[in-house]
Amino acid sequence: MSSFKTNLKNLDWMSDETKVRAIEKANMIQYKIGYPDMIMNKKELKLYYDDYSVSDGHFANIYNHRKWSAGKDFQTYGKKPDRSEWGMYPAQVNAYYSPSFNQIVFPAGILQDPFFVLNFMNAVLYGGMGTVMGHEISHGFDDSGAHGRSSETAKAHRG
Known about the structure:
By secondary structure, this protein is mainly α. Helix content is 45%, strand content 8%.
């Protein structure tokens, strides 16, 4: 992140005021790596999946999952957003930037081949993951993410 902020300071096309605000925003990015904390807490995990139903049939399980997932969504209506929620399951091979929360999320699934292979040289590992991280960070400053949470409102919502 320090290289990103250094590069911001050296941009000749960006106003000084915008550079200061961009660096403030970069300093406030929240990182979620691997999996949500609740996964390691048996009591929280049981409570989270308490009303999840598994059956013998494939299509019944798809239906049960969608019903459970919709129920989880409905429980959030009218409530303050939960900054600890993850928008992906840990096994998913993907990553994302959330402009609403100024968060970058790297589920554990992306920490595997081809992005992360233990017997590769460290430089290759850092390059592969660094590319994904840089890509996600840049979303906070592209034409969509730039309109996300400013430093002032992010401070008020930081959890």
